[in-house]
Specification:
Largest sheet: 6 strands, mixed
Shape: globular
Structural class: alpha/beta
Mean pLDDT: 90
CATH class: Alpha Beta
Number of strands: 9
Low-confidence stretches: 76-80
Number of domains: 1
Length: 185
């Protein structure tokens, strides 16, 4: 894909870098107050949430550790295992931490619900979910983040860690994706 094609599929910016930065600063300050003096572990579910988690943990001004997981669930029309497959697990014993899952987007919620169930079984001191984006119109399970920075309509979005075919993660904003490349100039 050349750069003209790449830019052509960015339909419109939905959330600017400045809006994201402002909300992350606010949430980072809230987390710092709430977890002062407590062992804190911020967990990113790879790949999409790595940009959000990086900025969120920099906005937290108390000691914290980070962890990464990679989880896949195989849900499709013909065979749904209903089981999350952890392809990379946390190194930490989370029973010694207050855990915050930093999620990029909650869409159907199925994979995240499975990850939450798995982590709760490991007895963390507490477990909360902070998501950059919430898309409630697509939810298929009863799941609500403890903190959502932005609620968006049912659009395919890219940028700030979110991808389409592994592209667009590097955009500093959230944009609507145009598969036809008919973006308004």
């Amino acid at each position: 894909m050349n750069s003209t094609e790449y830019r052509g599929k960015i339909k419109r910016v939905l959330i600017t870098k400045e809006e994201i930065d402002s909300k992350i600063a606010e949430v980072g300050a809230d987390i710092s107050r709430e977890y002062e003096g407590k062992p804190l572990l911020i967990v990113s579910i790879l790949k999409g949430a790595f940009v959000f988690m990086a900025d969120l943990c920099r906005a937290v001004d108390i000691p914290c550790e980070i962890g990464f997981m990679c989880a896949q669930s195989y849900y499709n029309g013909t065979s749904s295992s209903g089981i999350v497959n952890i392809t990379m697990d946390l190194a930490q014993d989370i029973s010694k931490y207050h855990v915050i899952i930093a999620e990029d987007i909650i869409d159907t919620g199925r994979t995240l619900a499975d990850v939450i169930k798995l982590l709760k079984a490991r007895n963390p001191l507490s477990l909360k979910v902070v998501t950059l984006l919430d898309k409630p119109d697509r939810r298929l399970v009863d799941l609500k983040a403890d903190r959502s920075l932005f609620t968006i309509p049912d659009l395919f979005v890219i940028g700030y860690g979110l991808d389409c075919g592994e592209m667009y993660r590097n955009l500093p904003y959230i944009a609507e994706y145009d598969p036809e490349g008919q973006a308004e100039k």
